[in-house]
Amino acid sequence: MTTRSGTGVSRPGFVWAAPAAVFFGLFALLPLVLVVVLSFAEWNGLSSPRFSGLGNWQRLFDDPVMLKSLWLSVLLTVLGVVVQSPLSILLGVWAAGHQRNRAVLSAIYFVPLLLSAAAVSVLWRAVLDPNFGVPAHAEWLVGDGNLFGTQSSAIGVLAFVSAWQFTPLHTLIHQGAARAVPQVLYQAAQIDGAGKVRQFFHITLPQLRNSIITSMILMVVGGLTTFDTVLILTQGGPGTDTTISAYYMYQKAFKNFDYGTASAIGVLLVLVATVISLIVVRLSGYDRMRSTMEGL
Fold first, then answer.
1. Alpha-carbon distance 75 to 86, whole Å?
2. Which of 94, 183, 217, 230 falls 20 to 30 Å from 143 in CA-CA distance?
3. What is the domain-level CATH number for residue 179?
4. Of residues 172, 170, 168, 142, the one with CA closest to residue 157
5. What is the pLDDT of residue 290?
């Protein structure tokens, strides 16, 4: 079934989108609704859920570990944006060029993107093992060799591993955007005497505005929902120093069998990620979808 617009162009009707809409409703909207309902109930996974009103939410905000975990989630997210954004922009712009051996080097660099987060975490857990890994043979560089022994070093490891795996994804986004920049802009800048650095800051970066915003939103959502990396690398330790909200939700649900509180944490993460993403979109003007090709 197709519909005809005022311009005479035929467009697919809703029937074509029905399979995707049903899939999204069953595996995204319905679970989200159930989690919201469970956040107002007490349930241990075996007995019938019992309505508890705002009890789970009140305990959540009275829990110092939860407040600390939320702060750690935001910290890791900020670190991800600060570290990955400049790296991915520079690498993406470079990969969009025509340098010698660029294709081979890009293919090697994108290998981490093909691995699962669990596989990457297991790999780096072995590499950074304080007894058998690289730190055991480089105490001059890492002190006692236990990078998981203090909060600062453990958070640094989490930020590094996440950047190692996901920077290639954002690089790919910026590479595609950089290749779409009209060459006439660079030719005009060369005629005016602008060098590579001025061209990058006055042409390339403005043209990458939409890809940068998209990349940042993905970083925010990914950073707030990181789980498997923490589970494998630090298990929330030392103590609760790397217990982020997603990992704390796992502990509440599958270790303490408190699915009501775990659901409240999940809903809170969805709300925080949504609010931050909307703020980024609003402040950046991305919601107006202004073209970077204006004036061409």
1. 18
2. 230
3. 1.10.3720.10
4. 142
5. 56
